[in-house]
Amino acid sequence: MAVAAGIHVAQHDLVKAAGRTIFLSQRFDRKRAGEGCEDHRIPFMSAMAMTEHRDGDDNCSYLELVEAITERSAQPEGDRAELFRRMAFTILISNTDDHFRNHGFLWTGRKGWMLSSAYDINPVPNGLRMLSTRIDFDEATASIDLLRSVAEFFVPIKSADQIIRECADVVRQWRGFAQARMAPKLEINLMEPAFEHGELDIAR
């Protein structure tokens, strides 16, 4: 779903092995070398380290992250838009596991850092819909209106609304995505609160 929503994620797949379904994800902090040579490691820094926060800090904000992008990214405009898209998607799928260790940067060389591929995107169907990272400096409610209130720090508002609609158009098809991966009906029903909520209607 993240891929369909235009989010950059690591190459991944579900495969069958020994009667089980296994999720495989290619490491994005490695650059493949030629045959007979070792892969090259790409320096990685979490948003936690980038912003000098510590584990347990409950005041992390996406506004700090966009400030770090503006100051240190090799491609700030693209990274700001990508982060905003991830925020919209996170809100719409109830991904409450969006803490600062689940955002990261890769070193590009002299030009600086860039957002790494997105990872650990976890819909949570508990109905609480409170993010781990605050959307502004005070509030972490998974709210589209709150997201739009800070949009100007990421992208122009017209672009923001387009991104939100694109994410909503994907998320509204969540059952189809689950069925295409042959998710059991019981699990689909259990996950419904993560996707079916008023914010999806607002986003559309």
In short:
The protein has 204 residues and is an alpha+beta fold. It is 38% helix and 13% strand.
Describe the structure in your own words.
By secondary structure, the protein is an alpha+beta fold. It has one domain: Phosphatidylinositol 3-kinase Catalytic Subunit, Chain A, Domain 5. Helices cover 38% and strands 13% of the residues. The protein has eight helices and seven strands; from the N terminus they run βββββαααββααααα. The strands form three sheets. The protein has a three-stranded antiparallel beta sheet with strand order 5-6-7. A two-stranded antiparallel sheet has the order 1-2. A two-stranded antiparallel ribbon has the order 3-4. α3 crosses α5. It is globular and about 45 Å long. 29% of the residues are buried. The model has no long low-confidence stretch (mean pLDDT 94).
CATH class: Mainly Alpha
CATH topology: Phosphatidylinositol 3-kinase Catalytic Subunit, Chain A, Domain 5
Rounded to an integer in angstroms, the radius of gyration calculated over CA atoms is 18 Å
Mean pLDDT: 94
- Helix content range of the residues, please? 25-40%
Judged by helices, strands and strand pairing, the structural class is: alpha+beta
Tally of individual domains: 1
- What form results from the Cα inertia axes? globular
